């Protein structure tokens, strides 16, 4: 017989339900009974609504040159081993207001799958771009020019080929970035320019193998750089615009890993393809094609910009990467330091193939395969020491908290690295140069990036200052190849290039000392 009362359960008496508040069950018409349209409408219904919707106030998307994260992405390309840890001042960041950091600049919220696709897409695109460019710059093009022009003629030809390519890419970037800002297509602003740049780059990369004179190589190389400029600038803009603030550091790390792997494997690719540079150039063209396909198909598609308003293009849009208003003296010295440091690094790296092959003299060239193998080993050693330099730089910064001292140490080590081959122009001396140089150049670049970010005088114009800072690096590379051309044209030995690299690093050290002096005055 069950003795429990109706109000009593197996675990004891049940508590009576609380009385509802007055009118708590009232349903507000049109508010509480409104359906969730995301769940109630099908995909076809949503597409029809989006097609028929009228946007009364179309927004004007910000220009790439006005976004600090876009310039930070471009700045990181100069240090493929790893960039500085200093956060870029961005007053438009979602972390500074009540906006959601999980959405991109256009207000879209990527899913976990789309974020994974961004990581893989940016990493693979960076890998294939770095692979092709490392193989072409370090091994294949120098080998082709050496065959066409001989030791001195080939080195001089390499200088003007690289110089014309840097100049064309620099001018093309000045125009392509604002033009892509004003592009309005269903595929977005950047995707059409990235696709067009891929087509141009692939066509002229395939054409490199058919060139039989240094002049032809220079013309085709310049046109190739124009296509690469369209790919690079739109890729940097996409990384800064389409990745939410929350995931930007992670995606940037994946891209860095892709850059490093592509750089190392691209240099070693030259060893495998030794003796047939034309076939290697064709395979590099395939690599550029794969980079373009990955960037367009793996990375999630851009949202349409047909409804976005565009402001008229002005001359100021073209000059934003060339000048800033009211720069301080310390900022000028910092840009000058980066210019000379980039020139010294370019002198030491761009002509390493000729330096290695003719270290015994122009009449006693090293075997082609031995040259390729030594250049590849030097590249691997430089990348490994750069990774070590990143850890040491972070340790120094944490212990002494003085980036100016880190810059001075890096410049001093860079000068030592380029002096060693002058004293001992041997295999051991060149390996020491590669190891110490890779360590020092990364330390210098890391310190300069941190100093540049922390020394921006007007925070709300950080993008313009970083753009000028990136331009100083480009101009430095142009100065480096120009000086290298004169050195190889008039110097008795190829090791003289290290003397001028030491002079450039010494000038960078002098400008860096001026930065320290200006900081002390403040």
From TrEMBL:
It comes from the Bacteria. It is a multi-pass membrane protein. Residues 1-44 are annotated as: Disordered. It is found in: Cell membrane. Residues 123-522 form the Major facilitator superfamily (MFS) profile domain. The chain crosses the membrane at residues 120-140, 152-179, 191-209, 215-235, 256-274, 280-299, 339-358, 370-393, 405-424, 465-491, 497-519. GO terms for molecular function: transmembrane transporter activity. InterPro entries: MFS (IPR011701), MFS_dom (IPR020846), MFS_trans_sf (IPR036259). This is Na+/sugar symporter.
């Amino acid at each position: 017989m069950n003795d429990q009362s109706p109000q009593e359960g197996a675990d004891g008496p049940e508590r009576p339900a609380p009385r509802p508040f007055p009118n708590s069950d009232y349903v507000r018409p049109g508010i509480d009974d409104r359906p969730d349209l995301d769940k109630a409408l099908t995909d076809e219904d949503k597409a029809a609504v989006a097609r028929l919707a009228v946007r009364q106030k179309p927004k004007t998307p910000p220009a790439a040159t006005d976004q600090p994260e876009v310039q930070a992405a471009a700045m990181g390309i100069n240090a493929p081993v790893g960039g500085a840890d200093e956060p870029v001042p961005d007053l438009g960041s979602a972390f500074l207001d009540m906006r959601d950091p999980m959405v991109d600049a256009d207000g879209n919220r990527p899913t976990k799958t789309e974020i994974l696709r961004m990581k893989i897409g940016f990493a693979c695109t960076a890998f294939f771009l770095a692979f092709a460019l490392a193989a072409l710059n370090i091994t294949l093009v120098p080998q082709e020019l050496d065959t066409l022009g001989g030791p001195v003629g080939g080195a001089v030809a390499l200088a003007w080929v690289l110089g014309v390519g840097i100049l064309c890419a620099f001018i093309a970037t000045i125009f392509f970035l604002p033009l892509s800002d004003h592009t309005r297509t269903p595929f977005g602003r950047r995707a059409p320019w990235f696709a067009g740049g891929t087509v141009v780059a692939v066509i002229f990369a395939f054409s490199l193998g058919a060139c039989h004179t240094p002049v032809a190589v220079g013309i085709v190389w310049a046109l190739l750089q124009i296509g690469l400029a369209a790919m690079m600038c739109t890729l940097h803009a996409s990384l800064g615009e389409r990745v939410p603030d929350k995931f930007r550091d992670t995606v940037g790390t994946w891209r860095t890993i892709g850059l490093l792997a592509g750089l190392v494997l691209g240099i070693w690719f030259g060893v495998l393809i030794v003796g047939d540079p034309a076939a290697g150039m064709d395979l590099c063209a395939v690599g550029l094609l794969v980079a373009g396909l990955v960037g367009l198909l793996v990375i999630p598609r851009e949202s349409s910009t047909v409804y976005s308003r565009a402001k008229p293009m002005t001359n100021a849009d073209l000059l934003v990467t060339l000048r800033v208003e009211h720069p301080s003296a310390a900022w000028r010295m910092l840009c000058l330091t980066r210019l000379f440091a980039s020139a010294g690094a370019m002198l030491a790296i761009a002509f390493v193939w000729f330096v290695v092959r003719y270290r015994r003299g122009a009449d006693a060239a090293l075997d082609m395969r031995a040259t390729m193998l030594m250049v590849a080993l030097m590249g691997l050693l430089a990348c490994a020491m750069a990774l070590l330099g990143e850890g040491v730089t972070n340790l120094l910064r944490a212990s002494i908290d003085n980036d100016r001292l880190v810059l001075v140490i890096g410049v001093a080590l860079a000068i030592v690295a380029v002096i060693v081959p002058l004293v001992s122009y041997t295999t051991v001396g060149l390996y020491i140069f590669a190891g110490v140089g890779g360590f020092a150049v990364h330390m210098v670049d890391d310190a300069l990036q941190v100093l540049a970010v922390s020394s921006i005088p007007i925070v709300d114009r950080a993008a313009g200052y970083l753009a000028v800072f990136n331009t100083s690096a480009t101009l430095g590379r142009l100065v480096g190849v120009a000086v290298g051309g004169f050195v190889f044209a008039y110097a008795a030995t190829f090791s003289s290039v290290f003397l001028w690299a030491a002079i450039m690093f010494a000038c960078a050290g002098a400008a860096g000392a001026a930065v320290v002096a200006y900081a002390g005055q403040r």
